[in-house]
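> run fold Secreted protein
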Amino acid sequence: MRTHSRLRRTTVTMLALAGLLANVTPADATAADSLGLSCGPNNGAGLNPYAYVPENERVRVARRGYDDGSTEVVNLYRSANIEYNGARIWWVWGTGLSAGDKISLDWSDDGTHSWWACHGTVTAGHTTWSTRAVDKAGSRKFRACVKPYNRAWACTWGWHP
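> ok
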């Protein structure tokens, strides 16, 4: 009986921890600006995916907004065949945004056990914003997130290879 109770407590604890790990938000992810050029070359200041990837090579993988009809939306894109230094380009494009809103391109290269993020904060006078990453490992999983200044993070469903 005592072993059964201990086993049940251990199982409940493990399920609770798994739930916590599954709900990691972009705010919990480690910023990756210079980690192997993951957020693009020049520590995030160099690669413009819209100038580098022709329109017919852009693939929108996912889109996420809020269910209440608000304007804040985030889109996850990847290049179809264009690569940067041998790596596929991924980026987030947020629209309907205001100064202070945040977007994030989150990624993992270890099966989503640890998380990295390429963040962007909208500056005054802009309603769109972009952040990008390069899939240096070739097997990373990505998601896009948006956070208006007065709301919780909203992210695309699942992780996209």
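The chain has one domain: 26-155.
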